[in-house]
Amino acid sequence: MHNYDPASFHTAIEGKLKRKHRTTLEEATDKEIYYSIASIIQDLVMPKWFETNQEIQQNKSKQVYYISMEFLIGRLIESNLQNCGLLDICNQTLLDLGRRPERIYEQEHDAALGNGGLGRLAACFLDSIASLGYAGHGSGIRYRYGLFEQRIIHGNQVELPDYWLKEEYPWETRKPDEAVEIRFGGTVHEHKRRDGSLEISYENTDSVMAVPYDVPVLGYHNEVVNTLRLWSAELSPAENKGLSASDQQYYHHLDHIHSIEQISGFLYPDDSTFEGKELRLKQQYFLVSATIKNIIANFRRNHDLPLSMMPEYTVIQINDTHPSLAVPELMRILMDEEGYGWEKAWQITTNLLAYTNHTTLSEALEKWPVSMIQNLLPRLYMIIHEINERFCEQIYTTHPELRDKIHELAIISYEQIHMAHLAIVGSFSVNGVAKIHTEILKNKEMKNFYTLYPKKFNNKTNGITHRRWLQQVNPCLASKITDVIGPRWVHEPHKLMNLLRYTNDAPFLETMKDCKQHSKHLLAKYVYEQQGVKLNTDSIFDVQIKRLHEYKRQLMNVFHIIYLYNELKDNPNMDITPRTFIFAAKAAPSYHLAKEVIKLIHHVASVVNNDPDIKDKLKVVFLENYNVSLAEKIIPAAEVSEQISTASKEASGTGNMKMMMNGAITCGTLDGANIEIRDFVGDDNIFIFGLTAEQVLDYYAHGGYDAKSIYHADVRVKRVLDQLNGGVFGSQEIEFKDLFYNIMYHNDPFFVLKDFGPYVETHEMIDRAYRDQNHWQRMAATNIAHSGKFSSDRTIMEYVSDIWKL
Ligand code: 26V
């Protein structure tokens, strides 16, 4: 994509600095250099971007649109440099200039337009779609505020706004000419035309402009540039009444502008519980309506064909139910604006849409109050109502055996709209994100729908982009891998399997270990700079990084640490492999128990880290403000990957894949993709423990679990819980009573006590296994070798062949 060598790249930066910043290489700030490099990349990208679009138009190839409320893309500078083949040249140039490359790249604000796994998955998918050369685009919201910035003050999480756009974002291009109008509210009028068809008109609607900002998505070394289109809400010209400050209406008008801009104002930070917030519904409709109008406009630009032909050239993947208003919105446009009858419109709609489910946690499932949809989207409500009527009717006539289940299957019931039901009925494909998750969907959560539509259901086990999560974040390991198996694994990640030939090769294992030590030192340096805590880099780096949720059981990890601490206090000479427990996690701002766990981790850390008896044997650190960039620092240094969710709860997990790919050994439950990781690497290369999903679901269904009896029977458990309740950690006795009560009086809903014993024993095995470094490095190499299967390239190829048919 470029003809640069270090000398000409140097000259190019110099030129940019001069022309754009009126400064020199010597005087420029790191930020100015960052902007100069970004601008050089954009200059290279623009023509390729144009050509990619031309090619799609000319070849009339089928395109996929990935609609998602979240794209957790993180920083782009390094991956863009890498994908256009400039990373080494740029690094060398910067070093020659006496600049530290990472200091320059850090100038980019980490784009946090997502909460966690679901948003990061969308970002990995875009990378793989482009790198595999498919025509696929992301469509999302350009939130002015991304996920909050987390600060810890006296152990408590405090949220600060993430105003990521306060400085220019160099990757985006505003496209005002492609703005579309979105309408909310108002009254719907239906007029019957002479031919019997309906004419729909609206009165008193509020209108908003959706203005697109395009971010290029570069394929790896293939000259492909796809688009991530992020929509921003602005005042529509129709509503701009040009009032002057003396007007009475003036402040009312300012208020109105503010409320419009709020639609793309901020990302909702709660991914644990659904709340029927009107603003969130507005965001969803805003995204869906803008995207569909855009898709139709693109289809018309590329083809001279009726919209009924769209499904041959277009497919729309919706990321969870958040964009599921796509079903009634497509119906509305096809019928009201394009004149199709119901049957034809339904056929087109259901051949365009495919839905991915990412959770079975009932508290996270979206159910909107009927009244809210009626008020905000009156025409869409009429359509949803009709979809529901026809659907229930169809069950009644074609599936008599399901007649008594209709109320459970209905899209509208008890004055609520069940978005998952709407999405299933309105799509041709429904997929889960790991084998076990799809099985639970088919046989439990969506059982009746599976009976109705067995062919719609399919599994697509998640993946991660190995280009970012291995090649980019761990250049040391990546180059050592290339040294032994050659470079082809970057294009064909399954080729990592060739590493299996080196799992008994002592020199290779030694180099792998050197890379791990190098990454551990870098992380230790960061931790020291951040919080003045010195890590023992000869200790096991035991990592749990993910959103803070009860089901992910960070609490069980903390209980284990308290237990180890007690053991060491009782017997200071105990033979234990030194450990460093590393946490990073954001809690939803209103999730009280999750915040309590963050506080507990800090209190335990301060007791353990400051106890002279413990010496270098145990350390606990919590790194604040977990985001993509922090994950990139931690993951290469991880040796134990904690994936300890209550079985059946974690749909897939993707952090498990990222750490495995960097040579960490998973300590996990039989949940999500952990199961597939185990099946692939084998029992000898993973530490599995705990209840199975079947056992958990059985307890939920039939009872039989009693947390208190474990408390009374297991002295280790009793001691930890009594310390929690007795003020040993924390300044006052009542400090953690909510956590204590939740276990003791709400019967430990996530089976922390039940799995505690097996968890402790598994960690004893880990402790022993680590002492045999040769054996440990062999396990690490085996994990890396098998991690290619969890590349999102594999996942995308499956979407392409089974669902998208590109
Ligand atoms: C849920 C909600 C619910 C209420 C409104 C706001 C909001 C925003 C996001 C979410 C996402 C919950 C679903 C989710 O993130 N699932 C995760 O998806 C990952 C990718 O498939 C998967 O690896 C994780 O296991 C799964 O928890």
TrEMBL record:
Keyword terms of this UniProt record: Carbohydrate metabolism, Glycosyltransferase, Pyridoxal phosphate, Transferase
UniProt GO molecular function: glycogen phosphorylase activity; pyridoxal phosphate binding
GO biological process, one term: glycogen catabolic process
Catalytic function, reaction form: [(1->4)-alpha-D-glucosyl](n) + phosphate = [(1->4)-alpha-D-glucosyl](n-1) + alpha-D-glucose 1-phosphate
SUPFAM superfamilies: UDP-Glycosyltransferase/glycogen phosphorylase
EC number: 2.4.1.1
N6-(pyridoxal phosphate)lysine: residues carrying this PTM: 658
GO cellular component: cytoplasm
InterPro entries xref list: Glycg_phsphrylas (IPR011833), Glyco_trans_35 (IPR000811), Pyridoxal_P_attach_site (IPR035090)
CDD domains registered for this protein in UniProt: GT35_Glycogen_Phosphorylase (cd04300)
Cofactors, names only: pyridoxal 5'-phosphate
Record function comment: Allosteric enzyme that catalyzes the rate-limiting step in glycogen catabolism, the phosphorolytic cleavage of glycogen to produce glucose-1-phosphate, and plays a central role in maintaining cellular and organismal glucose homeostasis. Phosphorylase is an important allosteric enzyme in carbohydrate metabolism. Enzymes from different sources differ in their regulatory mechanisms and in their natural substrates. However, all known phosphorylases share catalytic and structural properties.
NCBIfam families cross-referenced by the UniProt entry: P_ylase
Entry similarity comment: Belongs to the glycogen phosphorylase family.
Protein name, entry field: Alpha-1,4 glucan phosphorylase
Source species: Salisediminibacterium halotolerans
